[in-house]
Amino acid sequence: MLTKNKEIMRTGVFFCQTGDNRNLNIDAIAKYSANLPEVETVQILRLKPLPDLRFLRDQITNHSLGRIVIAGDIPGYYKPVFTRAMAMAGGNTDEIRLASFQEHGAIGENAMDRAKAIVACATMGVPFPLAAVPGGNPVNHTTLIIGGGIAGIQSALEIANAGKQVFLVEQTGTIGGHMAMFDKTFPTLDCAACILTPKMVSVGQHEMIRLLTRSRVVAVSGKPGSYRVKIRQSARYVDIKSCVACNQCTEVCPVKVKSEFDAGISLRKAIYIPFPQAVPNAYLVDEKNCTYILSDGKKCGVCMKKCPKECINLNETDHTIDIEVGNIILATGYELLDVSKIEQYGYGIFPNVLTSIEFERLTNASGTTGGRIVTKTKRFNKKTEKEEWIFSPEGVPPRSVALIHCVGSRNKKYNPYCSRVCCMYSLKFAHLIKEKVPNVNVYEFYIDMRAFGKGYEEFAERIKQEGTFIIRGHSASVEMNNDQMVVKGEDIFNDKLVEFKVDMVILAVGLIPTPGTEELSRMLGIQRDSDGWFSELDYNGSPTDTDKGGIYVAGMCQAPKDIPDTVAQASAVAAGVLGSLTSGKGIGHMSSLTLSEIEAKAKTLHTV
Amino acid sequence: MPVRVNPMFIDDLYHFGAEDVQLCYQCGDCSTVCSHADDVYKFPRKSMRLLQMGLEQKLETTLEPWLCYYCGQCSEQCPREADPGETMMSLRRWLISRYDFTGIARQFFKSRITEIFAITIIALLTGTFLLFYGFSGGNIHIYDGDGAFLPSPFIHKFDLSVGAILAVFLVINAIHMWYLVMVKGTLFAIPWWLYIKELYQLPWHFLTQKRYSECERKREHTFYMPWMIHLGLMLGYVTMLILVMVYIEELQAGPEIHWQVHIFGYLATIGLIIGTIYFIRSRFKKHYIQYKKSHGTDWVFVVLLFIIVITGISQHVFHRTGLLEAANITYVVHLMSVVPWLLRMPFSKWSHLIYRPLAMYLAAIRRDALVRQVSILNSYPVVIK
Are the beta carbons of B107 and B114 closer than 8 angstroms? Predict the structure, then answer.
């Protein structure tokens, strides 16, 4: 069959591209494609509606075309017409090739070269991803994962289980990330910790995973396949290997500060363990609040004396680690928008206005109230001599709760994008409140209910049947009338202005990238999109790759997504990493591929 | 009642100033923050929705746009920056053009050039007529009394005829408004005595603009006082209108000052001058959201008013200081801007002077009638068996 392939295939290139696209100069691409071998005719149709069938048939018969290339942003849209025209002209309908600029990433600085290469590959009948393989650099078999949330954990386990070395870098004292803080997962209402903690333990015990907690990546150099990474590990002040988590140090520590793990609704000591299931299961010292460290060893230091294993060393210093890795996975996650700047909801002014993560910690059985949903109680703080509002297990349960969706999301002033998880977790909250508090009224204010996943719509229907008042209309204000919070809104379906007296308001706050995202993107040379999330190479085709070779994105740091999607993406990243390790072809930057390289590769594939 | 959808309605309203209606995703934030929205009159979201759906015939029978005083809170809160406040403003402009049976208002709102052209023509015609009249019988060196350039009895008749034209247009438009709102747009019975019961609303809202003051309750800014300025401006020009229509002969007489009439004139002038300067400054500085977008007709209004006030004051001063020729000339210029300004009124935003109190009155009647309707319905229990 070799001879048949070497027959001249008379090719017609049709540009079906409207002029409204980015920085592509269609005329220049057309001129370039006219010089490609076997190209018989090049026509710029610039059509949005479908082209004329008879005109196309005449073109095919006049030029006696054997192959047609449709080039444009969405060439698939025009394919049926060309297929019919080809059939009418009596040609082979299999020989209609698409040159999709959008799908193969003809964006950015070298968009023109990329577009030319896409057209060249299509005329030669070679799939673009086959020809455009960046590579050459040999790959170091060690992988670095930045971020120890569920995405980082999943990727680390997948890669390590395949027998490859992994460095997992986590900024805080424990892995687990936000998922460890959650009570239940939607829509199945599984216990989040029951899913996560076994994975965390396997990470902690895995011989192929080296866990670096309290660490940050400070510098990255090198090229794909062999990145040299400098990691700064802050002192933990407690020896992980000998600490048995006996809690005696915490009992004697005099300093009390707000707990990060409890989203600030409870207090912890300066020497603490974030939560009982933490991995590594060892205590750590918060150097910003420890009296001994702040006073340069002049005061306090009782924990050192108390520790029965003598594993506390408050004079420990930070140190840096240099490692060489082949691939880097970014799994840095997200943060909540600072909701106190959205003044109309009174967050920070009214005590019982909570963010979603605060409520998540309140309703969690390992939280400060042991999972009881209560309103805050007033207490006199003797130290500061001020009255403050705290959660206590003896608090009064709320009689009515309002849940407000889209706080800061889908809002041009804050986040223009949808945070994607808020609708579902708010419905989950409604369920949890109904379940735990008897005779409670729950009001959900939503704009559009985005229950998009498997089982989500059914979950939303279930919550409605449980008796939650689901109000289509966004509440814009929370006010205080005679010590009673009042939530106002418009009920659009029932055409009413509504006003509810509530004891607790939970704000479904929008998500933003972590503050370190910008620094990391500069360090690695990764693009970020207009909202600040890391940019993937191609949203449809390669959602886990970046335009830098050997650097991948997983989980929330690419865009808001829920736990199932995060886990799926994390596993997909692991497949990419393992592929680069075992294929033996090496890796390189996609952006550094030149037109001539792709052309040459396509030609060799074409002639075979 | 079948309602016809006008798919081009949003595009049409673009000329009246509403640019971002399509951005609205119906969250209801605007209705929540509005201090005027209540259970019967819910806006601005509902108006936005009607607008998006192109229900032109339904919108022309609503009163909601008139109940909004554009404090701008809804536009500040809007998560989509769809600017509901400006949309309500544009709907008011559009409603004025709907009430106007001549179609002139529509042309003015759609094209600034047409408006300026019409104003110039009327001003020139007035000027020519006055100069012709003055030179044919009077003396440019005399301002008042016998042989005056523009004798006050003549000006009185002139004013009254301009006022009559104005009144004819306004009354017909107001009746048209009543027909659209109360006959075409109200599907339930309205007893006649409600018209008498709520009659007090007309002078009350006309003279106090109380609803406007309610807008400001939520404001923290100390110097936010559009309500006071607006009230002063309105009372100023209503006083001036009464003085000019009724007491023009006393006003124009003698170089000495007739305090019993002039004191009102001075007070009105203070109101007018503070008002015009404040609004011109606000439209330039744009420090409140309601002044961010200025329609062409808004500028014509404030600029013409400014010219009127300045020429009015100067002719008064020239007359008292003995510069009679200058007084006569400024008087002609004054009238050249007053006449188009008055004749423009039924076709411009200025007509809200009449429509607003009328809308409050009709809204109160409709609300009473609706409450009555609901109570009638509730008093008949539905018996199935």
Answer: yes
CB A573 within 8 A of CB A567: no
Q: Position A376: which residue type?
A: K
CA distances from A525 to A92, A111, B251 (A): 45, 18, 79
Q: What is the pTM of this model?
A: 0.86
Can you tell me the ipTM of this complex? 0.84
Whether the CB of A453 is below 8 Å from some CB of chain B: the reply is: no
- Determine contact, residues A131/A603, Cβ cutoff 8 Å: no
Tell me if A582 sits within 8 A of A103, measured CB to CB: no
The CA-atom distances, in angstroms, between A395 and each of A128, A369, A480, A593 are 64, 9, 20, 63
Tens-digit pLDDT profile for residues A24-80: 788 888 888 888 888 888 988 866 566 788 888 988 999 888 899 998 888 888 888
Pick A447's closest partner by Cβ from B25, B30, B38. Answer: B25
Are B80 and A412 inside 8 Å of each other by CB? yes
Chain pair A-B, CB pairs under 8 angstroms: 55
Residues of B in contact with A496 (CB under 8 A): 39
**Joined tokens for residue A95:** 């020989």
Mutation pick from B32, B42, B78 vs chain A, by most beta carbons of A within 10 Å, is B32
Q: Is A489 in Cβ contact with B28 (below 8 Å)?
A: yes
Give backbone dihedrals phi and psi of B145, rounded to 5 degrees, phi first: 80, -155
How many helical (H) and strand (E) elements, i.e. helices and strands, does chain B have?
A: 19, 0
Collect all residues of chain B within an 8 Å Cβ-Cβ radius of residue A406.
Answer: 27, 79
Q: Which domains does chain A have, with CATH numbers?
A: 2-132+593-607 (3.40.50), 143-234+318-333+514-530+537-582 (3.50.50.60), 248-306 (no CATH), 336-512 (3.50.50.60)
The three-state secondary structure class of A588 is coil
Question: Token pair of B305, please?
Answer: 């008013």
Residues of chain B neighbouring A411 (CB-CB closer than 8 A) = 79-80
